[in-house]
Amino acid sequence: MILDLTQLKTGQNGVVVELQGGAGLIRRLESIGIRPGKKISKVSAQFMRGPQVIKIDNFQIAVGFGMAKKILINIEK
Fold first, then answer.
1. How many domains does the chain have?
2. pTM of the entire structure?
């Protein structure tokens, strides 16, 4: 099932399928290691529209809500 990053529950894992948005946003996400094919897990999220904390490779990073809506994830069962 494919969801955006904001719809993942804390602790869920998945694989990045697609990055939506303009060239600048895609370049920025790829520069921090978020690109199609990468495994990703959601560590935490703020209530409502706050940042989403994810773990990718061996580091954690906070992504803003607007950016997180543009990251599509295929959830692992």
1. 1
2. 0.89
